[in-house]
Amino acid sequence: MRHDAILFSNLKPREFAQEVVGKTNKVDLDNPFYIVDIDDVLYKVDLWRKSIPRAKPFYAVKCNDNPIVLEVLAGLGLGFDCASIAEIETMVSLGVHPSRIIYAHPQKHISYLHRSQELGVDLMTFDCVEELYKIKEHHPYARLVLRLKVDNKKALFAMGDKFGCSEDEALHLLQLAKDLDLTIVGVCFHVGSTNEDPGAFSGAIAAARRTFDAGRDMGFDLRLLDIGGGYPGEKGFEPVFLKTADIINAGLDKHFPESYGVNIISEPGTFFVASAFTIYTKIIGKRMSESYDDTKPKEHMYYVNESVYKSFVVSLFSDDPVQPESLKDVDGPLHPSIVWGITCDGLDKIKGTCKLPDMAVSDWIYFENMGAYTLTINSQFNGFPTADIHYRASKIVEITAGALERVFRHRGLLEEFADVECIPAEKAAAELRAALCAFDDMHSFMRLAGVVRANVVWTPGKTSGTQLDDLNEPSW
């Protein structure tokens, strides 16, 4: 896999991909590649904050651990939902403060508990008696979040059979935690991935409130509600997401009004990355299906340089999510087609019967909405390489510089800079933006733009280890 630097371009992703293909010899460009639209990620962050303002997002790293995406999200101040020590160490290495990480796996390795304690990550989930005893022995000062079970039959990937406890069981776990002198700070739930029922959040929030009341009655200072993941993020997602947001906001206002004194977080993954990633696959072979029925057209069968064992694992579960499109503009009729993966496995079918124009070997087919659970579920079966990655953005400098300016202003550093230079604050802000925009190397820029991540801020005459983050001293 090759990662290119972020290129600033006002071309749409499809036009950008056509330019990538056009600049490369057809024979040499054998790898599939992604175009990552950073603007799309920024749009999602802004939309989330406007739509569900009370729930601070803790991005689910398991969904897509692309390093540039993680840098952008870290620089914009998000928290992170990590399920393993590898994910935790990745985020800590990016300078993310441990207080911005929740270890959101109810079943944890003993060695992982030791390592998370060493790294200062103490916020973690649990859902059973055995895990409480394990935590008591190996991470006794952890701040625990009790995970409730959600039975949601309308989630493609339901979680209730594997994780979570019933409300009745929660009472028993609260009492046991009390007896073990463990610290429980909150309650969490997950309605399931690819959730098709926004209403599932209503019942889960109500159940969480009942558990909160029981826990507070037992003497626990419960101040954190984690409403989990399960949010749509594919193109055209807005109507469903906004309906979901309305249901969540209504549930929070009813069961967790601000007067109740609770901090709220969430664990979106698909929401932030699904539509930002488009994959472009090259046709390496073509054949016509055999048909003994003259009344039915023959199917065009295309073999591309990708696989269900790489980016298209979702095709093993459902044929609907992926929709192939031709990269080049092709006139003429559409034909019944099948898109096969590159491996020798007969089950490696990326897309069953679909409609595509007549295409040739070395043409390109692309698939949108490929950012969720593609890069992180990817094997080396048959030895084929992983897709390369190209990044494009049109406004990341402006937005990230603006975000950094707000951080500087919030911490008083902008005013300090203005005082030292004897200039008005607004002029100082303009100079800060100009200085940031002067960076032509994206990695250097992200190091500066992500001061939260880099653990370094500018102060007159020296650097400081101050972490610019409003969750460094949590109240829960």
From TrEMBL:
Keyword Lyase attributed: yes
The entry's keywords: Lyase, Polyamine biosynthesis, Pyridoxal phosphate
Source superkingdom: Eukaryota
Chain positions with N6-(pyridoxal phosphate)lysine modification: 62
Gene Ontology MF, one: ornithine decarboxylase activity
EC number, as in UniProt: 4.1.1.17
Cofactor(s) this protein cannot do without: pyridoxal 5'-phosphate
Keyword GTP-binding: no
InterPro entries for this protein: Ala_racemase/Decarboxylase_C, De-COase2_N, De-COase2_pyr-phos_BS, Orn/DAP/Arg_de-COase, Orn_de-COase, PLP-binding_barrel
One GO term describing the cellular component: cytoplasm
GO terms under biological process: putrescine biosynthetic process from arginine, via ornithine
Catalytic activity: L-ornithine + H(+) = putrescine + CO2
Major enzyme class: lyase
Pathway: Amine and polyamine biosynthesis; putrescine biosynthesis via L-ornithine pathway; putrescine from L-ornithine: step 1/1
Annotated catalytic residues: 344
PROSITE patterns in alphabetical order: ODR_DC_2_1 (PS00878)
Entry similarity comment: Belongs to the Orn/Lys/Arg decarboxylase class-II family.
The protein's role, per its UniProt record: Catalyzes the first and rate-limiting step of polyamine biosynthesis that converts ornithine into putrescine, which is the precursor for the polyamines, spermidine and spermine. Polyamines are essential for cell proliferation and are implicated in cellular processes, ranging from DNA replication to apoptosis.
Subunit structure: Homodimer. Only the dimer is catalytically active, as the active sites are constructed of residues from both monomers.
Protein name: ornithine decarboxylase
Origin species: Amblyomma americanum
